[in-house]
Amino acid sequence: MSASGPEVLRHELDEDADPSSLIYTFGGVEPVVSIRPGTVVSTSTLDCFAGRVRSTSDLVSQVCDPRFINPQTGPFYVEGAEPGDTLAVHFVSIEPRAAWGVSTTVPLFGALTGTGFTALLHPPLPERTWFYEIDRVSRGVHYAALDTDFTAVLPLDPMHGTVGVAPPLREVRSSLAPGDWGGNMDTPEMRAGVTCYLGVNVPGALFSLGDGHARQGEGETCGVAVECAMDTVFVVDLIKGVPTPWPRLESDEYVITTGSTKPLEDAFRIAQVQMVRWVAELTGQSELDAYQLVSQTTLSPVANVVDTVYTMVAKVPKSVLGDVLVMQGMHARMKGVAAAWSA
Amino acid sequence: MSASGPEVLRHELDEDADPSSLIYTFGGVEPVVSIRPGTVVSTSTLDCFAGRVRSTSDLVSQVCDPRFINPQTGPFYVEGAEPGDTLAVHFVSIEPRAAWGVSTTVPLFGALTGTGFTALLHPPLPERTWFYEIDRVSRGVHYAALDTDFTAVLPLDPMHGTVGVAPPLREVRSSLAPGDWGGNMDTPEMRAGVTCYLGVNVPGALFSLGDGHARQGEGETCGVAVECAMDTVFVVDLIKGVPTPWPRLESDEYVITTGSTKPLEDAFRIAQVQMVRWVAELTGQSELDAYQLVSQTTLSPVANVVDTVYTMVAKVPKSVLGDVLVMQGMHARMKGVAAAWSA
Amino acid sequence: MSASGPEVLRHELDEDADPSSLIYTFGGVEPVVSIRPGTVVSTSTLDCFAGRVRSTSDLVSQVCDPRFINPQTGPFYVEGAEPGDTLAVHFVSIEPRAAWGVSTTVPLFGALTGTGFTALLHPPLPERTWFYEIDRVSRGVHYAALDTDFTAVLPLDPMHGTVGVAPPLREVRSSLAPGDWGGNMDTPEMRAGVTCYLGVNVPGALFSLGDGHARQGEGETCGVAVECAMDTVFVVDLIKGVPTPWPRLESDEYVITTGSTKPLEDAFRIAQVQMVRWVAELTGQSELDAYQLVSQTTLSPVANVVDTVYTMVAKVPKSVLGDVLVMQGMHARMKGVAAAWSA
Amino acid sequence: MSASGPEVLRHELDEDADPSSLIYTFGGVEPVVSIRPGTVVSTSTLDCFAGRVRSTSDLVSQVCDPRFINPQTGPFYVEGAEPGDTLAVHFVSIEPRAAWGVSTTVPLFGALTGTGFTALLHPPLPERTWFYEIDRVSRGVHYAALDTDFTAVLPLDPMHGTVGVAPPLREVRSSLAPGDWGGNMDTPEMRAGVTCYLGVNVPGALFSLGDGHARQGEGETCGVAVECAMDTVFVVDLIKGVPTPWPRLESDEYVITTGSTKPLEDAFRIAQVQMVRWVAELTGQSELDAYQLVSQTTLSPVANVVDTVYTMVAKVPKSVLGDVLVMQGMHARMKGVAAAWSA
Questions:
Q1: A158, A271, D242, D298: which could join A314 in a potential S-S bond, CB 3.0 to 4.6 Å?
Q2: CB contact under 8 A, C263 and B259
Q3: Chain A hits for B283, Cβ within 8 Å
Q4: How far is CA B328 from the centre of its chain?
């Protein structure tokens, strides 16, 4: 960062692009731009339906092509990123682009229905679309029932469901899938103020993001959050020579790990083993002691139980870890960059 | 409740009882006492090791008999309780009896080890015991690592891991198992100020409780919380003619459902379906609308991933439900009884 | 066994008994009779509906009381059986009592429907009953479709779905549940000519059996096999001082282990670990070598994916084990008793 | 096929190729050759270690690069194949190229060990390699224990663990993964004489195969079969306009479906739903009737419980389906081509 403030990249989104021209994978696509570590990126993301669902009469199965769901913005080539490094992405702001969002049921998708993987003989649940007004000033997301006149105002809590890099082993993965490269984890922890750490698998990392949610419950039970296009600002940086096996996050108060697989207890196990090892490393404790400390202090919210595999989160308050230096102090430094940019 | 305040039962615990004389099942044992709905019960519970683990040199496999783990206090016969009713138990206070607690690893038990059910060829992890000092005034639980000099103070947050009634279908279940009768759910939500609702399966309900924890992480990862004997006060009441298929809880801020089974996603599904139906009933919404509202608002913390089956929790803030009457207003009434008793 | 042949017990079944007077649990009921090891028992079992479903117009939800499903014959108190012993039960013959059987769908039960544990928002699948004619001479089970005129003749292959002893830890378990005490494993391997080994948990073992199937597919996909009352002859014996952690079977050609839990991969793991350890013990190989040999030779058919937990089987041909003595030669000895009885 | 017999392609394998020059994915690589439907392909495959493990002193972690495991032969571009078609591959012969095979344990891989996905705190099991002599005349696979002098001769039963096409949704998947595109299903049903049906996702289908096993147990418990290079002959054909959602197989006696996901019960559900629908279509029965018939007749062996997701198989004997025409009679026609080629 120079005295004149951080380098800033504005990456414009073409909201009227044909869905078939957008990108829907991690890996397998050419980077849109190359950026230096330390850059502040100001960009936008389409909603998971590429804007095709706009009212309660738009049903996903009618207005969307199943090949073109969950478009991503990117990928960004990060200069100097090599396999074995960690990419750090600090979310400065995530704000709905418009004053509305939608949610839906989708046939054979969701946690409380038979699906293509929990294959059953039931016909699909009814397909419906809910329209939400978003008040960006009062920070309210307005729910209105379809079958009665019940309404409720829910807190606006914007986040990105899908954040990731190109996967290892030459794989190319759909933006519908979560895994160790990140992807469609759908955790509400991915909000502004948080730093996300992702292991780099290919030169340049090839970072992308999308799937903005005005808010979601833990688990994303029906499979669809309050989906909306987002204006997002993030800072990108690198931690050279430090691998990160599974995506991690850091907020001012918590260190956070994730695990994505099925069954859900295995996703829990991944997140917890990652946390035990991280706490051992941060505090200098033995693995068994860290296992004990994590067992008494972890919060363990579900992220999603609806995607191709499921995602669990483990959160341990930094306050119980003592005076530790997390990821070489990256979170604090990136907050500084964000502050410099805001100023 | 008469003008002179609620009826109060003091049920004394014999802390020096031989472990083989205690009770370890839900169902299959005679009630210790009969109580009327509305009664305030003041009693105590032993820790899950019946007090046999008292220092870092006490290993579970050496000092405990595997047939005598997790003794329960009770069962209490509730007058008038019949199958199809709901038992309400409001926890007035849950306080450690002594200034210490213990946690341990147990061979082939816990979420991050092979077990008798996730059967693998690994030898067991090392067996260890951690000793915690509990400061009941400053409300701190003092952790000390075994292999280094790392220490931390964790917030005291007392709760009961095991709370339940006799199961249906003439079954008798070990106090190590959770299920639709309650039992060893190990959710930190079971704390003072909360009301627990349990479906009645047999005349008198036969309510028992035990397994006090000074605190635990969500998931109880290593299988053992900060275990301690408790002094506990609770109020018991009945909701006649209202069945409760899976245990529910209510706090001032949340309605809470539980589900217990494996794999963990099925426990999630049970808790979420219970919540969708409860929200539909409370708000008059259709089931699909309730599915949508729950999807955007639920918190979904893990309870345990270590017991014979696993337990998930769903929590929805009452604030998004409007002006609803939960369980005929039982929670508020029981808080009133608690206040009268305290006075 | 005296020169005059084995001791024989004929235990008569009251087919017209009221369902509420029958037994539906393992544990929790008094033995019907005491028998000496070596006894040949000739008895009968009711079908899982206690005979209440007799035609395509009898629907389970209309003619059966959910509290009275899957009645068992027994329990038999085996003299001398103590915890830590193994009970051996050799099935001499299992024959349908009548020339018919039934199968059904049951609302919210089965592998391809939402259930009480895989809780979803779908309404139940339609409830239907299929009637099978059983030709005990030609050994055919006659299937007739309900909605078309399609018919097929399937091979008669009679077996018991439910075979077990009283569980450990003072538990009483429904006859709908499988576990380490046996119970409702629903494996087609439990046929005549096979010896079943069960660990003894309580004095006398308290052996019961029921749930006869004229045949079933592996997995019992819809949850209900071709259910029929059975005339069954079995020999009972004891292997003193030899524990059996999970039910095992032995045929002339195979050693067979079982595991019952969820998720299904954990049931697989239990059965495979049991087999690895059994093969290591039988052949004197190290555990890793046995792991290798089992990996290349095991057959791994599903038993059931529909009961309260699921059951997997592992089968290794004796031919690859060399000249081994299985369970002290019990299978051959019991076949001798059976032959003596038949003579 | 002309009077002069089927078209034949001989595709030579370079056994000394550098592992980094081979292909390890389904999708993402250019076809090696274009073939017409009806062609007989005679080719070879390397073993999953690319021939790097050749004796008991070769440990996978020492001689193999984890980026270069399970090389595939192909992909073959099939002329005329379009999304929505079905590719039929009939295996004429699968024969070990040499008189030996190997199996191993691999750290943190296998069904009876903690893994990267069933993440636990155990250290890995010991790493070992077993060497098998293969007698191609007597058809024996010679097992020798490492820690004792135990030996056994197992039946030779050659098969391909990995068979598939390019996946849908622009994904590129590692050859270690099974899924709806086929891939690393590891079912012993994939042997000579069988026809495999795969849904086409991209123009030309891009069929590849590899991972030959001299034999394997059901489940591939330790994660590694008796691995060997293979000489393989197969016929390729197309069924235009018929989609196949999940890989299916057909032998002279059985129709066979597969499902690949976790947990294992969901893989079972996929295979069973596919079979129910296939049986309904083949016999003209209603879906509920087919559900019933499959429930009484399916064999349900495990394929693998070790790969990135698990694979289950469902097998129904054609004998219970009456006089049905499976996949337009493709299996019989391809056997005819194979016979013409052999002549």
A1: A271
A2: no
A3: 150
A4: 23
Tens digit of each residue's pLDDT (9 = 90 or more) over C247-275: 999 999 999 999 999 999 999 999 999 99
For residue C161, what are its two tokens? Answer: 């779905």
The phi and psi torsions of D248 (rounded to 5 degrees) equal -125, 160
Q: What is the DSSP code string of C246-309?
A: S-EEE-SSEEEEEEEESSHHHHHHHHHHHHHHHHHHHHT--HHHHHHHHHHH-B-BEEESSSSS
Mean model confidence pLDDT for chain D: 97
The string of pLDDT tens digits covering residues A16-58 is 888 889 999 999 999 999 999 999 999 999 999 999 999 999 9
Please tell me which chains touch D, using 3 or more CB pairs under 8 Å as the contact test: A, B, C
Closest CA to D187 of D166, D155, D217: D217
Confidence band (pLDDT; 50, 70, 90) for A254? very high
Q: Do C117 and B287 touch (CB under 8 A)?
A: no
Q: What is the pLDDT of residue A4?
A: 65
- Tokens linked to C264: 């299904």
| pLDDT tens, position by position, B82-123 | 999 999 999 999 999 999 999 999 999 999 999 999 999 999
* CATH at residue D173: 2.60.120.580
Taking contacts as CB-CB distances below 8 angstroms, the residues of chain C near A114 are 114, 120, 122
Under an 8 Å CB criterion, which residues of D touch A?
24-25, 27-28, 67, 116-121, 169-174, 176, 259, 261-263, 266, 269-270, 272-274, 276, 287-288, 291, 309
Residue B270 has pLDDT above 50, yes or no: yes
Closest by Cα among D321, D317, D251, D329 to D289:
D321
3-state secondary structure of A210: strand
Local confidence band at B12 (pLDDT 50, 70, 90 cut-offs)? confident
Residues sharing a CB contact under 8 Å with residue D197, sequence separation 6 or more, in sequence order? D86, D87, D88, D89, D239, D244, D247, D248, D249, D250, D327, D330
Q: Which residues, including other chains, have CB under 8 Å from residue D328's CB and lie 6 or more apart?
A: D239, D242
Residue B281 CA to residue A114 CA, distance in Å, equals 24
- For the entire predicted model, the pTM comes to 0.98
Q: Are D99 and D132 in contact (CB under 8 A)?
A: no
Structure-token pair, residue C23: 């037994």
Does residue A201 lie within any of the structural domains?
yes
pLDDT in tens, D326-336: 999 999 999 99
CB crowding C1-26: b at 16 or more within 10 Å, else e: eeeeebbeeeeebeeeeebeebbbbb
Name every chain A residue with its beta carbon within 8 A of the beta carbon of C114.
114, 120, 122
User: Could A301 and B296 be called an inter-chain contact, meaning their C-beta atoms sit closer than 8 Å?
Assistant: no
Helix C287-297 and helix C264-283: axis angle, to 10°? Answer: 120
Domain that holds residue B334: 8-342
Question: With contact defined as beta carbons under 8 Å apart, do D156 and B149 qualify?
Answer: no
B36 SS3 class:
coil
Terminal-residue alpha carbon distance, chain C: 14
- Rounded Cα distance between B67 and B61, Å, is 11
In a domain, A106, yes or no: no
Cβ distance of C28 and B28 shorter than 8 Å: yes
CB A221 within 8 A of CB B265: no
Check pLDDT > 60 for residue C132: yes
Residue A135: inside a domain? no
The answer as to whether A188 is a domain residue is yes
CA nearest to B311 within chain A: A265
- Give backbone dihedrals phi and psi of B109, rounded to 5 degrees, phi first: -140, 135
CB contact under 8 A, B172 and C28: yes
Which of B68, B117, B269, B285 to mutate to test binding with chain C, by most C CBs within 10 Å of its CB? B117
B253: exposed, middle or buried (C-beta count within 10 Å: 0-12, 13-18, 19+)?
A: exposed
| Lowest pLDDT segment from A10-14, C215-219, C311-315, D119-123 | A10-14
Total structural domains within chain B: 1
Structure tokens at C210: 């029921």
